[in-house]
Amino acid sequence: EYNATKAVTTIALDAKYICLDGKIVEGSITLQPYCSIILIKYSTPTAINSLTKAGKMLARVFPNPVTNELMIEIEDSAGMAGFEIIDSSGRSVLKGSVNEKTTVNLTNFSSGLYLLKVVKGNSSALKKIIKI
C-alpha cells in the first residue's frame, strides 16, 4: 500500500496481514503522507508449503509463518538437498543440508521476511518464509 497524498490515510484490512518486520496487523492501518507499507496476507502457522520446480515437488516447508523451528522435508528421499536462508537485504544468513527431514532453528533470527532456497541436483526452488 502507498499513501500518495499529503494527508494521513487509514486503510481498512479484510484479514490479518504481516509486515516485513514480522508485526501482525488487522482491522486497519494508518499511513503517513507519502509513505508505503508492504503487507503479506497472514496464514495460520500450521500451513504446509510445497517447493516445486517444473511441477515436481522438491520439499515441504512448515510452519509458515514460523516462530522458532522450521521443518524442511525432502519429497524424494534418495539423496541430499541443500538449503539457504536469505534475508530481506539479499544476504545469506544460514546454509545447510537436508536428508529427508531437517529442523532448522530460527529462534535467534529477527522477525521479518526471508527467502528459503532449496537445491537438489540441478533443481532449485525459492519460498518466502515469514519469521514472527
Provide structural commentary:
The protein has 132 residues and is an all-beta fold. The chain has strands spanning 9-12, 17-19, 24-25, 28-31, 39-41, 49-53, 56-62, 69-74, 81-86, 92-98, 101-105, 112-120, 123-131. Strands 6-7-8-11 form a four-stranded antiparallel sheet, with no helix packed on it. It has a four-stranded antiparallel sheet with strand order 10-9-12-13, with no helix packed on it. A hairpin with a 4-residue loop joins strand 2 and strand 3 (24-25). It starts with 8 loop residues before the first strand and ends with a strand.
Mean pLDDT: 82
Q: In total, how many beta strands?
A: 13
Strand proportion: over 45%
Helix fraction by DSSP (H/I, runs of at least 4): under 10%
Structure class = mainly beta
Low-confidence stretches: none
N-to-C CA distance: 21 Å
Q: How would the global form be characterised?
A: elongated
Q: Strand order, main sheet: write it out.
A: 6-7-8-11
User: Helix and strand string, N-terminal first?
Assistant: EEEEEEEEEEEEE
Computed CA radius of gyration, to the nearest angstrom: 17 Å
Number of helices, where a helix is a run of at least 4 consecutive DSSP H or I residues: 0
Largest sheet: 4 strands, antiparallel
